[in-house]
Write a structure and sequence with these properties.
This protein has about 325 residues and is of the alpha/beta class. It has helices spanning about 10-15, 20-25, 60-75, 85-100, 115-125, 150-160, 180-190, 210-220, 235-245, 260-270, 280-295, 315; strands at about 25-30, 35, 40, 45-55, 75-85, 105, 130, 170-175, 200-205, 225-230, 255-260, 275-280, 310-315. Helix 7 links the parallel strand 8 and strand 9. Helix 3 (about 60-75) packs parallel to helix 11 (about 280-295).
Length: about 325
């Protein structure tokens, strides 16, 4: 899609003041109003920015399509900015957006104290902050779209219902160590209802830096009793399955993953992965724009968005 230059004053200011953040982004696209099937130079009521991780995943593409379609409908200009080092660049991007007078930003928060400061400063400058797919209970008052709690709960239910062997369970979460993780709380809430299940081992993965093959070996080596893995990182899910095949442990360990990427779906069909869960990322993208629009417009009497979570199991694929 062509990136359009706009006459809206805030956009021009934003380009000047947030240049550092834009230059550090590995991908940036601008989705704006469409008239007569052509993108036009015109003024827009609001200017938004959405910060995403740089992951070549099906869910990310669907998320951006949802953002694009909703931006056209609301007649707003929305920049989608992807970063390789998301945790490092997020703080800077939020601060730049605030200084540039961006009306609202949407982000998936990390566990950084710097980010807490940036969010507070953004709100002081009048920039609204909307969260999506948050796994941090610290920011629940800002959360509009469904948190990771529902996703993790669905994964835990699929795991509890699986034909697994007795043993220990390892949980792999995206990001850095997070004591406020809603994912862990969701999994433990489900496991309390099933005898013999507990979050015995917890691992955190940053797909940009961690070698997933090594992580899988570390999980297996941590205990001879490992009989199940719940992985809530889309990129890591098929790699963990492949690694278990390579070390001849795939028949001993039940896997429940996240995402519907092609390799994950093939592994489900082959019976390698027991199940995988995902939210409707297209609707999540649309919801993010809706939430930013309502926040920027001061519309408080609206229902918080609920994004459906679905589960695909190997029995369904056969």
């Amino acid at each position: 899609m062509e990136i359009i230059k706009k006459t809206y004053p805030k956009i021009l200011i934003g380009v000047a003041l947030s240049a550092a953040a834009i230059l550090s982004a590995v991908f940036a696209a601008v989705y704006c109003n469409k008239s007569n099937d052509k993108y036009e130079q015109t003024d827009f009521e609001y200017h938004f920015q959405v910060f995403v991780r740089n992951q070549d995943e099906q869910c990310t593409d669907l998320f951006k399509r949802g953002i694009e379609d909703a931006s056209l409908e609301y007649k707003v200009c929305t920049e989608v900015m992807q970063f390789n080092d998301y945790s490092e660049e997020l703080y800077r991007a939020v601060m730049c957006a605030a200084y540039a007078g961006i009306d609202a930003v949407a982000l998936e928060p990390d566990n950084s104290s710097q980010l807490s400061y940036a969010v507070a400063r953004a709100r002081e400058y009048g920039t609204q902050v909307v969260l999506y797919l948050s796994d941090n209970d610290r920011y629940k008052e800002l959360l509009q779209t469904d948190p990771f709690y529902n996703i993790a709960r669905s994964a835990a239910v699929a795991f509890a219902e699986s034909d697994r062997k007795p043993g220990k369970t390892a949980v792999v979460l995206r990001g850095t160590q997070n004591p406020d993780s809603m994912s862990l709380r969701a999994i433990r809430d489900v496991f309390k209802l099933h005898e013999g299940l507990d979050t015995d081992y917890i691992w955190y993965v940053d797909s940009a830096t961690v070698e997933i093959d090594k992580l899988t070996r570390d999980i297996v080596d941590s205990s001879s009793m490992i009989s199940g893995i719940i992985c809530l990182d889309e990129k890591s899910t098929p790699v963990i399955a492949s690694s278990l095949i390579n070390i001849n442990r795939i028949n001993d360990i039940t896997i429940v993953g996240y995402g519907y990427g092609p390799q994950t779906m093939k592994y489900i069909e082959d019976g390698v992965i027991n199940a995988s869960v995902s939210s409707d990322m297209y609707e999540a993208g649309r919801s993010v724009v809706t939430d930013m629009y309502c926040s920027a417009a001061g519309i408080s009497a609206y229902e918080k968005t609920s994004v459906n979570v679905t589960t695909v199991k190997k029995q369904v694929m056969k």
